[in-house]
């Protein structure tokens, strides 16, 4: 009886084993085969280089350099434990810290996990030589973004960071994935699609101990495209050094084409801190009350002060309200209605040319009342104010020009002569960006054309053909342009508000501006162009709380002096585009 029971038990056990084997081999055979294949296949990504950013003369500004990352293969737990125990001796990082990094970076058992990035070459060589002692550890060459000149042109360039949820939602259909490194701000963001590299990699078969058996497939990585800017590194450096540590911005542009030769915004930042993931320094950038990440050249809006006067002068001449014979006497102040409006000096009898040269407020108070708020508003629009310039970088502000209709609708108030007087000297609710003012003064430099500023010249050697880059003639008489130009030239001659720019070697024209600011010291402006004939450069220097336009003029003097010293004003340093405009 006992023998029968024992035989029955043995038969039952064998029957269960046969059913179990049948299930494994036949019913779920394909499933377990696939799992087995996955367990013996390792995917090792290889990242291409991000595209290089060059200046107008093909000098490298930003490029990738090779770094070495320590990665572990997470499939084999025993190998992982061995690696975590031995790596601290080579890397100088505690096992606890390595485990924490592994946990934060882990995505999938088939994907390697980056534990330490950008290790020293010496440590990379040690790990490669002792590969047998570090099972499951891979030293992966990896391109790392190199900003060769630190803060130089940082707002134009932008920086790199891990893609956020908002961008991932918008860009997932274009091949972007979680943990991708993308551009933030500047050219790095705007041209990310072109600069971005395509990831490749190796698919390899390994044995049960994780040792390489054979390569199953290889997809070469694709490097990003090279982007050439219109910036001139030499001039960019001169402008940054002249601006120093003062808060503000400066831009130099080709007035015939709109090419940005230099663009500086202070304070700036070093894009390298984002590459190195120095979180403490990054946090300071985001919390700094001076907003170092803000590109003041295109995103900051400020009252224009007297730098707005060339538009008022053009409006007065074009509407026939004034001509060269029109004269007003400045005794230091005038009444508009019952309110006294003061001038910064006593200028005596002034016509429109002298009033521009001496920045006489009394002349422009009376001119503003004659021309009227609506006409000044319409001519401000003609010169490109109150709307973006179509500059290609993101976050460009529109600015604002007040007008009678706006005041009636939004404030339920009538437009008074006092409003016109305030607007005529660039005060009141008027707000502009430095780039808008540069574009405005370029109209007088190129004698009647409104250009579209841009900073990217070519991608992989092919000139960027952007339909938004237009050169539009303004419907203003040649005589008006020439009259205002005479006033702007007088600004830098003896007795003008920027007479310090009266160089013996070169003629400069422009307009100073001191913009009253309710939150502190006045802002300082200078907008201008040089040389006066056959102009090559238009320039704007804006100093936040700079006290007066004279201080901005001093900065312009430093810039031009250094450019002359380095021979950057010689023939052929920038092709004159006057003939192109005539065509």
Structure, described:
The chain has 23 helices and 23 strands. It has 583 residues and is an alpha+beta fold. The strands form seven sheets. Strands 2, 3, 4, 5, 10, 18 and 19 form a seven-stranded mixed sheet that branches. Helix 14 (309-318) crosses helix 16 (361-371). The longest helix is centred in the first third of the chain and has 26 residues, at 2-27. It is elongated and about 135 Å long. Residues 571-576 have low confidence and may be disordered.
Output the structural class: alpha+beta
Helix content: 25-40%
Give the biggest beta sheet: 7 strands, mixed
Taking all Cα atoms into account, the compactness measure Rg is: 33 Å
Oligomer: single chain
Q: Looking at the structure, what is the overall shape?
A: elongated
Range of strand content: 15-25%
How many helices? The count is 23
- End-to-end gap: 115 Å
Q: Low-confidence parts, pLDDT < 50 over ≥5 residues?
A: 571-576
Overall pLDDT score: 88
The total count of strands amounts to 23
Protein traits:
583 residues; alpha+beta; seven-stranded mixed sheet; five-stranded antiparallel sheet; 23 helices; 38% helix; elongated
Describe the SSE topology:
Layout: H1 2-27, H2 29-39, E1 41-46, E2 53-54, E3 60-72, H3 77-91, H4 95-105, E4 113-119, H5 121-129, E5 137-147, H6 154-157, E6 159-162, H7 165-171, E7 181-184, H8 186-190, H9 192-195, E8 200-206, E9 212-219, E10 227-229, H10 233-243, E11 248-253, E12 260-266, H11 272-275, H12 279-287, H13 296-299, H14 309-318, E13 328-330, E14 333-336, E15 339-342, E16 348-350, H15 352-358, H16 361-371, H17 373-382, H18 404-411, H19 417-424, H20 434-445, E17 449-451, E18 456-459, E19 462-463, E20 471-473, H21 478-491, E21 509-515, E22 523-530, E23 537-543, H22 549-565, H23 578-582
Parallel strand pairs: 2-10
Antiparallel strand pairs: 1-8, 2-3, 3-4, 3-5, 6-7, 8-9, 10-18, 11-12, 11-23, 13-16, 14-15, 17-20, 18-19, 21-22, 22-23
